[in-house]
Specification:
Length: 199
């Protein structure tokens, strides 16, 4: 199984931790989460297992968080999940690159694929992902104008991983902050994370 599948299982494990399976199952069975809107069975057979899991389960997870904790609460919880995954990955894999933009590309290549990294000024980077594995091309109808950014965990993951790496090695930064600013899963044209060097 691919790295994305491992990410899915870690994500789902974190999500289910402390959550009643009965309560969670009720959300997954919600009629508004029609699985066929995410692809035909034929299309799903051509997908990698990790993509199938994300396609089928992740929108239900987002819906569960939005309904249970509101948009802000859901984003905070997803960020914590990302932080935990960043710690777990750091314990088993260390990036080889030393330049910040190359480290980011190496991390994304490991987990999700290509990403565009643009430096803006001395302390800022834009991380643009046009094929986010968490957002995909969902056709969801949102009940409110404000909704959860599907790739929110990636910001927490990246921030935690990069900060742990800076503690271990002498790099061009000591501490960063990563914020998810756009998400395809929330209706944007692409996913974008903004990185700021704090130290």
């Amino acid at each position: 199984m691919g790295r994305l599948v491992c990410f899915c299982f870690v994500l789902l494990g974190d999500i289910l931790l402390g959550v009643s399976l009965e309560k969670f199952g009720g959300v997954l069975m919600d009629k508004s989460l029609n699985l066929l809107r995410r692809g035909t069975p034929g299309e799903m057979l051509k997908m990698k297992m990790g993509n199938v899991l994300i396609t089928m389960v992740y929108p239900g997870v987002i819906s569960f968080f939005e309904k249970g904790f509101g948009v802000k609460g859901a984003m905070q919880y997803l960020r914590i999940i990302g932080n935990n995954i960043g710690k777990d990955l750091f314990n088993v894999w260390i990036a080889k690159e030393n330049k910040l933009d190359k480290i980011i590309k190496e991390i994304f290549k490991l987990a999700w694929g290509k990403v565009e990294v643009q430096k803006e000024g001395e302390n800022y980077f834009r991380i643009i992902d046009k094929s986010c594995g968490l957002c995909m091309d969902y056709e969801l109808q949102f009940e409110t104008e404000e909704h959860v950014q599907y790739c929110g965990p990636i910001g927490g993951f990246l921030e935690t991983y990069l900060n742990l790496l800076a503690e271990k090695r002498d790099l061009e930064y000591n501490k960063v902050e990563v914020t998810t600013v756009f998400s395809r899963g929330s209706g944007a044209a692409h996913c974008e994370h903004r990185l700021r060097i704090l130290e």
